[in-house]
Amino acid sequence: MMRSLWTAASGMIAQQTNVDTISNNLANVNTTGYKKDTVEFKSLLYQTVQSKTTSSNGETKPVGAQVGLGVRNSSITSVFTQGNLTESTKSTDFAIEGEGFFAVQGLDGETYFTRNGSFNWALGTYGMMLCNTEGLPVMDTQGYPIELGEDYDISKVTIDANGNICYPDENNNPAQTGIQIGLVQFSNPSGMEKQGGSLYKATEASGEPVLESENDAIKKSKIRQGYLEASNVQVVDEMVNLIVAQRAYEMNSKAIQASDDMLGQANQLKR
């Protein structure tokens, strides 16, 4: 009975983490570029109650008896499926159609990655700099912040599907400026470390970022100007998962209550 108490308690702890993850998904249903998380479980050690042996009649038993000692969370994995593209009124809003990531430079000088393409033009060192909503500069294919000189009219700047920054020429036709937004891909994007603010950091599990402009072996992503990628959270699915997690939590609590009642009855046998 003591074993059942700890087993049910581990189930309640695991389901609480599950509810926390689902709650975070629902809270970020309107967060641009957010990717939902899923909780994965694994069983704990098993205790052998009876090994393979023979019965009282000398017959060999085909199987033994093992009792599990509970469950724990093995991982919380991000699902990087494509979110819906929603139209925006800002010319500095960009959505990625594909598996690519934008690269931004953090305050610590490190490079971080995001699917949130809600950018703005801000005053930089040499002119106007393309940055995210937190003021972090967006990186180009050379690994430098994207900046345009003071002689550029920002309202006339456009970006094509390949991320090339264009400006009208003498005939008022978009001409490439030689600056291209850097898009990278990862062999295992789920291995990246979440940093908050829709930012991710590369790790050994994710592998090194692969620049799309320098690798012809990968499928190139496309940038859609005037669009934003919505989160891939499906509210109906999350609500169903929340109900399942709540019921599992409730069943584990009832198992604890049943074990407590059995312990109480056992303690009363001596009276």
What would your notes on this structure say?
- By secondary structure, the protein is α+β, with helices and mostly antiparallel strands.
- The protein folds into 2 domains: 2-80 and 236-270, no CATH class; 85-229, no CATH class.
- Helix content is 22%, strand content 32%.
- The protein contains 2 helices and 20 strands.
- It has a 4-stranded antiparallel β-sheet, with no helix packed on it. Strands 9-10-11 form a 3-stranded antiparallel β-sheet, with no helix packed on it. Strands 12-13-14 form a 3-stranded antiparallel β-sheet, with no helix packed on it.
- A hairpin with a 5-residue loop joins strand 7 (101-105) and strand 8.
Radius of gyration: 27 Å
Q: What distance separates the N and C termini?
A: 20 Å
Strand order of the largest sheet: 8-7-15-18
Pattern of helices and strands: HEEEEEEEEEEEEEEEEEEEEH
What's the helix count?
Answer: 2
Largest sheet: 4 strands, antiparallel
**Total beta-strand segments:** 20
**Class by alpha and beta content:** alpha+beta
Detail the poorly predicted runs. Answer: none
Q: Can you tell me the overall shape?
A: elongated
Percent range of helical residues: 10-25%
Percent of residues in β-strands: 25-35%
Determine the mean pLDDT.
89
- How many structural domains in the coordinates? 2
